[in-house]
């Protein structure tokens, strides 16, 4: 098997085990209140690239974490991510009708249900993550909860979203745009790497710095690529409405730098991500391939 085939087999296996674990850890659709539980499952299951679980498992494997423990962190991350998409699609935010190739939750159900789906997914993530498991010391569990809460809140994803909403129609400097994206998208991707590693053995200083530099580069690359895809790809391929950034007069890497320079930046960030984990050698091959997976979506 080539290393490319091996990586593709691994990604499919992690995506499948994440789907199965999410299915198990979400309340059954028939459980009272059934409409809410059905809508939560609609928002989470059967779609998405599962990038955060992939990062979590790859970083965790590097630190010899147990796969069953990583499933828990991966599903908590994915529930937070799914909640953010449901709320982002609401009419009071991005007002979108298409997500993962299907009608958004408020279109399929209604706005109040979509709001509650996001709320309940957020708390379900912490129910899952805070549950004591024999393989983790209590301090490790608390650190994981802290990491996810910090990445999701006003200093992370929710704060980034607030900046995003305030920025419509404005010109941001490159630093301001970077801060917004590091918070809105980067914080949860960084947490995916840090939580995966945090499920395993203790990190020595150099390892923590290296993983952080990797996560930081990949987090920003993800957003640069998302901006490029929004400007260059059709809705059917994306599974969500394309061209929305320009239509909504949102500052993006494409509007700031132009398409060609945005592509150069994505490649620079790929190189930064690879360089950051060089010292781990072949043990970090999957993290390396994940950086490629993120950037190669535009190629
Ligand atoms: C509502 C608190 C709150 C936050 C929303 C992440 C976010 C913040 C909004 C999503 C808006 C958006 C399209 C951002 C661009 C990058 C991004 C997160 C894309 C979607 O993530 P993917 O590509 O989605 O990982 P899948 O469907 O593959 O899981």
Automatic annotation (TrEMBL):
Listed SUPFAM superfamilies: Terpenoid synthases (SSF48576)
Listed GO MF terms: metal ion binding; prenyltransferase activity
InterPro entries: Isoprenoid_synthase_dom_sf (IPR008949), Polyprenyl_synt (IPR000092), Polyprenyl_synt_CS (IPR033749), Prenyl_diphosphate_synthase (IPR053378)
GO biological process: terpenoid biosynthetic process
Pfam families per record: polyprenyl_synt
Membrane-crossing residue ranges in chain numbering: none
Cofactor(s) needed: Mg(2+)
Keywords, alphabetical: Isoprene biosynthesis, Magnesium, Metal-binding, Transferase
Gene Ontology cellular-component annotations: cytoplasm
Similarity remark: Belongs to the FPP/GGPP synthase family.
NCBIfam families: FPPsyn
Protein's UniProt name: Geranyl transferase
Species name: Pandoraea thiooxydans
């Amino acid at each position: 098997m080539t290393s490319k085939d091996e990586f593709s087999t691994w990604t499919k296996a992690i995506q499948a085990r994440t789907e199965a674990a999410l299915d198990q850890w979400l309340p059954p659709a028939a459980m009272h209140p059934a409409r809410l539980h059905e809508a939560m499952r609609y928002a989470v299951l059967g779609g998405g690239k599962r990038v955060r679980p992939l990062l979590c498992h790859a970083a965790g494997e590097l630190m010899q974490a147990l796969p069953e423990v990583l499933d828990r962190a991966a599903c908590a991350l994915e529930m937070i991510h799914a909640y953010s998409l449901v709320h982002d699609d609401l009419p009071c935010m991005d007002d979108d009708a298409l997500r993962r190739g299907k009608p958004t939750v408020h279109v399929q159900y209604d706005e109040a249900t979509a709001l509650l789906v996001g709320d309940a997914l957020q708390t379900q993530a912490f129910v899952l993550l805070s549950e004591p498991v024999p393989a983790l010391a209590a301090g490790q569990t608390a650190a994981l909860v802290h990491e996810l809460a910090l990445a999701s809140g006003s200093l992370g994803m929710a704060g980034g979203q607030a900046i995003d909403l305030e920025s419509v129609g404005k010109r941001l400097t490159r630093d301001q745009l970077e801060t917004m994206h590091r918070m809105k998208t980067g914080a949860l991707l960084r947490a995916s790497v840090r939580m995966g590693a945090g499920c395993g053995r203790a990190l020595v200083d150099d390892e923590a710095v290296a993983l952080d530099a990797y996560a930081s580069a990949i987090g920003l690359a993800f957003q640069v690529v998302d901006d490029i895809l929004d400007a260059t790809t059709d809705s059917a391929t994306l599974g969500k409405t394309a061209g929305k950034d320009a239509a909504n007069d949102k500052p993006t890497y494409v509007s700031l730098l132009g398409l060609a320079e945005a592509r150069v930046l994505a490649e620079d960030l790929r190189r930064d991500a690879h360089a950051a984990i060089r010292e781990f050698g072949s043990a970090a091959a999957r993290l390396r391939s994940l950086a490629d997976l993120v950037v190669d979506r535009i190629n």
